[in-house]
Amino acid sequence: MRVQFLLSRLVDLVVVLFGVSVIVFLMIRMIPGDAVAIMLGANTEVTPDRIAELERRLGLDLPIWQQYLNWTGGVLQGNFGTSIWTGRPVLDEITAQIWPTIELTILSIIVGAGLAIPIGCFMAEARGKGAEVAVRIGAIAGLTIPSFWLGIVAIFAVAKLFPQFTTLGYVPFFQDPLGNLQRMILPVIALSLPMLANLSRLVRSAMLDALSQDYIRTAKAKGAGRRRIVYRHALRNALIPFITSVGVSAGYLLGGAIVIEQVFAIPGLGRLVLGAINERNYPLVQATILVITSVFVIVNFIVDILYAVIDPRVARS
Amino acid sequence: MRHFSLRTASFAAALLATTAMVSAAPLQVAIDTAPAGLDPHLITAFNSVLIVQGNVYEGLTAVARDLSIVPLLATSWDISEDGLTYTFHLAEGVTFHDGSAFDAEDVAASIRRVQNAEIASPLASRVTPITAVNVVDAGTIELKLDAPFAPILSSLSSIAMVPAEYETQKEALQQAPIGTGPFKFGEWQPNGFISLNANEAYWTADVPKLDGIVFNFVPEAATRQVGLTSGQYHLLPGIDPATALQLQGQPGVTVQETRDIAYTLLGMNVSRPPFDKPEVREAFNTLLNRQEIIDGALFGAGVPAGPLSPALANWALDPSGYACYTPDAAKAKAELEAAGVTLPLKVKMNVLPRQDTRDIAQVVQQQAAAAGVEIELVSQEIGDFVQSWRNSDFDLFVSANGGSPDPDEYFYRTFRGGGSTNVFKYDDARVNELLDQGRTTTDPAARKGIYDEVQQILACTGPAAHIAYGNLFTAVSDKVSGFEIYSNGRLTSLRNATLAE
């Protein structure tokens, strides 16, 4: 793999992060209602002096370009600022809440992408048979059912059928592994189902395409077994669009996690950023979005490298 | 295959065993959002107060279920003849959660902390009349006022007592509160939960009875609801009428209900014509059909609101006595025309983003149309709403406010000319005079007379048309006993509650 290839991807990463930082910085300040108004709230004693004092303390009295420079200057030195409300460094707040989201996303990718391959292969092989049609209808249902609805229905159903089963909230894995997994089952199902549906349909069509190629006929002719043909010859070629889709889906999972965290009362990044937007907690919103963007960009960076691994032609072109 | 199913079965059994163990101990409460912090002198948001006040922190006085003021950390007090000196006798054997003893020095430091400009407490105005705090001895403290201030005992119920060493510290109590209450702070999982543990050294015997309380932050109403019916949560405070309706009659759940001291109101900007004219404000009161609003928007759970909640039984006048409370669209129209308003009058109305206020706004819009007023509803996001409210940038708004047990606390800041939350820019000479008198009059009967007149004036020509006092609902699992709903929404009775296995 060429160094040049890696470098050009790294430059992309920096450009995207810079663009996002500017957009987020401006956007959170453009929406009406500023941090000071919300902080002072509806039921407190407010004087112009106190508003001015608070603005000065938060650095909101400076011109906006200067605020931006101060912030990026800090970020480059690893200082993301402090939360307006709690006064704690925003990185502490983010690290305190990032694990549920990471766990939720990774488990969902494992379930969504992991199951999509066998299900997709099955659908391609058994094309047109009764079982395949049933799975295909299920996949379309999975695509169209919103995950928050599925989540709420699942909570109701489990509460009715297995009242002993704790489905809400979060405990860290290393504190109580069973309790952790037990609470993760429903959110992961709700979050990964649309992804699973989407990806298995994608694997199916890519496999159908691959299976009709000449080299498959050659493989059959030389007497290769069914498993070898499907998993070794066809799947490898069908994987490129699949990997792209997994990369993009990771971004959607992070977005979907916001909703799922809301439904299942999981204290993750989604809840953090939503709360931060509502209370106009500028440094926290900026840092969280930057983290989410970085994850998304890095995942796609890894996807690009994976292309090169699966198909060496990519890195050469 | 057999091996596999055996493993599955033992796995499931293990899961069940852990859940049974976990759900045994503390009382699980579910509320919608996490507080910004737990410093009782800095954060006055409702969810913060709900968690710490009365549980972790205590004041010299407390608000009882009937909203009267009762002793707490001060077991008794003497008031001098002129009403300027209050002497409080403190409870004995009280310790803070860090083990240090509670005495008069802590009281003095706590009050000075709220008054300190550096700390910038939003509660500062409640203790401004206190000019001197004198420690007489460890168990006695004397407060000097610059003028008689009748609401002082009520105000003191909201001033939490903290250890003296925190007098000048701004951050420490936000994350790890230390008070004298029956529960001490345990753990805070951001956006997840806050847990409180029983304070074994609590100064009243046999309190608390619970092992602990966990406040779970659950943003989704449907999730809270199913969490209660499935037994994962035991208490849902302050649920909306629709959820209450659904939970009523569910097995294992009791919905407690009381009159709320919070209320919904229609605010009018007196600095913008035509609302500068009292006749116009009166016409708006006349065009409102409050009962219809309650039936249409609040599922019938509520009563028409005068300026004070009927929960303040000692103060509130019966709203049916106000002339402008008889709904009459034709009369309102005539009043508007008589005041020189050209009909149809076109105005904008900002709406607080809450289900009840949105529904109310729509009914009001209909009713106003019948009197020749065309209202354009402006649905705002909360930050936006607060900003326009704060800057008096509105014609009309529909909103909800928390009430307080003393009339002065609400009236003075809201309707006194220059009052800190007088966003209406209302400035009436007679009301100002009465409100000033109300603060310095300590004779209950004379004070009652003053606030009667204030209510009479505000009801029809004040800048806020009070719409309804809704009902406050709290859903309680049948495993909980001893919990009683308070009309100020506080969880004061948790100290006496118990949880069955």
Set down the secondary structure blueprint:
The complex is a heterodimer of chains A (317) and B (501).
Chain A: H1 3-30, H2 35-40, H3 48-58, H4 64-76, H5 90-125, H6 130-144, H7 147-161, H8 177-211, H9 214-221, H10 226-264, H11 269-278, H12 282-310, H13 313-316
Helix pairs in contact in A: 1-12, 5-6, 5-8, 5-10, 5-12, 6-8, 7-8, 7-10, 8-10, 9-10, 10-11, 10-12, 11-12
Chain B: H1 2-22, E1 27-31, H2 46-52, E2 61-63, E3 69-71, E4 74-79, E5 85-90, H3 104-115, H4 124-127, E6 130-137, E7 140-145, H5 152-156, H6 172-175, E8 183-189, E9 193-198, E10 212-217, H7 221-229, E11 235-239, H8 241-247, E12 253-259, E13 263-268, H9 278-287, H10 290-297, E14 302-304, H11 329-338, E15 345-351, H12 355-370, E16 373-379, H13 382-390, E17 396-401, H14 407-415, H15 429-440, H16 444-461, E18 464-477, E19 480-481, E20 498-499
Parallel strand pairs in B: 1-10, 15-16, 15-17
Antiparallel strand pairs in B: 2-3, 4-5, 5-7, 6-7, 8-9, 9-10, 11-18, 12-18, 13-17, 13-18, 14-18, 19-20
